[in-house]
Design a protein that fits this description.
The protein has 23 helices and nine strands. The chain is of the alpha/beta class and about 575 residues long. The strands form three sheets. A five-stranded mixed beta sheet has the order 5-6-7-8-9. Strand 7, helix 21 and strand 8 form a beta-alpha-beta unit. The radius of gyration is 31 Å and the shape is elongated. The relative contact order is 0.16.
Length: about 575
């Protein structure tokens, strides 16, 4: 029951109250949070920058997200160990927004998604994750991984391509046409970075593989550039304006400033403004961001619960995610949600409470103002290699392969549909189609489970003096709209040429509006043909449905009994001798 209570509770700063407002939270635990926060902050710095670049904006906006959203969500959310910031899952949604509407449009969409997340929390939709089938989740995450990997090819190979086209096949054609212009030194830097990330875990050190990989990749790029190569770096790829109007290279070493999201630059470079048409255009994307953010954050919290034995408050976590995404756009931060890899690293580093996530944000902030010059030397091919590795990890390829080998055909169909639609069209379409397809296939399977059988000759009925011309039918399974018409159609055929029949319904757990309509149609047919029906042993939900609909016995046509035995006695007693 405590777990159920956490699922339905909604308290601002639930995780902080649970973990920190406790006499046991003292110096030792605070020290563990400080150490974990420093560790995860160091891990998050390059990831936040890489994910911002992959989303189509400058790297500092990823750092702003980790700083602002990471702190606000940790302070107000419902999961003790979650680390929030930019995540790879959003890239497939954010990149098209940034290309079409610029940074301003991306920030407005993030703000809108935050409002939607708060609304979801207020409506107690924290159990949302339970209604998303695993085949849908695996399908769209694998599709997102493919899209992210493809977006990294230009930087990975040093191809002279600007923005990739929007459609998948056009991307492939553009990349294929640019392959002869591949920069071999850039490909070497990316390959070495990727190789280090793959081989480093064999050393079994606590240092995350992407940190030494980026250091080695940066040193290699620096050495190659000193000898005349032209490996792109963050410093050579991004610029910012200084207070005196001149340009600086790389990342601005300033604290994030408060700016209204609609005053940020659109695709044209001018302030995007705000209008009803822009709101209408961004609403589908904002809804997709909110849905994906909810799924990712709740999934992360569930994974952490399994690792730690603690329990999160799902609705409180949605509230925290919503508030974080409302606040962060005003400081230049893009969409944020909980990141499973960083959250797991946080717990393994010894975290005790959300304080570690807040410390992580402070570490990123300190890196922004003190190490921006060093971060400018990070090579773009190495960042691309990092994102390729992130894409591979998020794809959960072993799980996907296992599903394809062992799952029922319906789950495989849902997985392949979500995967294909995410890659070829759009993640919003993929998730919507996947959930609807999964629901339809599930209803089909449930409808097939509902059956009607003639038990007149069965041991429970035979010898009970059932009158001539009477029969007993038993229905097993839910009587909902997908099954009811078929079942009562079969029943109408089976009961033809009978004086009456007993409908034994103890195996019917659900009777919905469609089932009720089909039952009323059957009773009307019996009335027209002079056939009597006795309905026996209704369970609570079907009985409540009939009561709410005002269905009453009809003299000479329909009656209701509490058990099959009572129905048999009733029919036998009224038979003329």
């Amino acid at each position: 029951m405590p777990h159920r209570a956490h699922l339905f509770s909604l308290r601002l700063a639930h995780a902080v109250r649970e973990a920190c407002l406790d006499e046991r939270y003292r110096g030792r635990r605070l020290l563990r949070d400080l150490m974990a926060g420093v560790t995860v902050g160091i891990i998050a710095i390059p990831l936040a920058m890489a994910l911002a670049i992959a989303s189509g904006v400058a790297p500092q906006y990823g750092l702003y997200t980790a700083i602002i959203a990471g702190f606000v969500i940790a302070l107000t959310g419902g999961s003790r160990f979650s680390i929030s910031g930019p995540t790879a899952a959003f890239v497939v949604i954010l990149y098209p927004i940034a290309q079409t509407y610029g940074l301003g449009g991306l920030l407005i969409a993030t703000l809108m998604s935050g409002v939607l997340l708060v609304a979801m929390a207020l409506m107690r939709l924290g159990r949302l994750i339970e209604y998303i089938p695993e085949s849908v989740t695996l399908g769209f995450t694998a599709g997102i991984a493919v899209v992210i990997a493809i977006l990294q090819v230009p930087d990975f190979l040093g191809l002279p391509i600007g923005d990739l086209p929007g459609h998948f096949w056009q991307k492939l054609v553009t990349l294929a046409g640019a392959l002869p212009q591949m920069d071999r030194v850039s490909a070497l830097v990316a390959g070495v970075t990727l190789a280090v990330m793959l081989l480093w875990p064999r050393l079994k050190t606590p240092v995350p593989p992407h940190l030494p990989a980026l250091v080695i990749g940066s040193l290699l790029a620096l050495w190659c550039n000193a000898r005349g190569a032209n490996v792109a770096t963050i410093g050579s790829s991004f610029t910012y304006l200084l207070p005196d109007g001149s340009e600086g290279a790389g990342i601005p070493p300033f604290l994030p400033e408060f700016v209204w999201p609609w005053q940020q630059a659109g695709a044209s470079g001018e302030a995007i403004g705000f209008s009803w048409s822009l709101f209408r255009d961004l609403l589908p994307a904002a809804f997709a961001i909110a849905m994906l953010g909810a799924i990712e954050s709740l999934l992360c919290a569930v994974v952490l619960d399994g690792m730690t034995g603690k329990r999160h408050s799902a609705n409180s976590e949605l509230m925290g995610q919503g508030l974080g995404n409302i606040v962060t756009p005003f400081f230049g931060g893009i969409t944020a949600t909980a990141a499973i890899a960083r959250s797991a690293a946080n717990y393994r580093a010894g975290a005790e409470s959300p304080v570690s996530a807040m410390v992580h944000s402070v570490v990123v902030l300190l890196a922004l103002v003190t190490l921006s010059g060093v971060l400018a030397y990070l090579p773009m091919p190495a960042m691309a290699a990092l994102l390729v590795m992130v894409a591979w990890n998020m794809s959960e390829a072993p799980k996907a392969v296992h599903l394809l080998k062992t799952a029922p055909r319906s789950d495989i169909l849902v997985f392949l549909t979500c995967f294909s639609l995410t890659v070829l069209l759009d993640m919003v379409i993929a998730i919507t189609t996947g959930v609807l397809l999964a629901a339809v296939l599930f209803m089909r399977e449930m409808a097939r489970m509902t059956r009607v059988t003639d038990i007149t000759a069965g041991s429970r009925v035979a010898g009970r003096g059932l009158p001539e011309g009477w029969r007993v039918f038993k229905i097993n399974g839910p009587l909902f709209f997908a099954a009811a018409d078929r079942i009562f159609g079969e029943l109408a055929v089976m009961s033809r040429d009978t004086r009456g029949f007993i409908l034994y319904m103890d195996g019917v757990t659900v009777l919905d509006g469609g089932g009720l309509a089909a039952l009323n149609k059957l009773i009307a047919t019996c009335q027209r043909e002079g056939t009597e029906v006795v309905i026996a042993d209704l369970q609570f939900q079907p009985l409540r449905t009939l009561a709410r609909a005002g269905v009453a016995p009809i003299e000479g046509v329909s009656r209701y009994t509490s058990s099959l035995d009572e129905a048999l006695r009733l029919v036998s007693a009224e038979t003329p001798t």
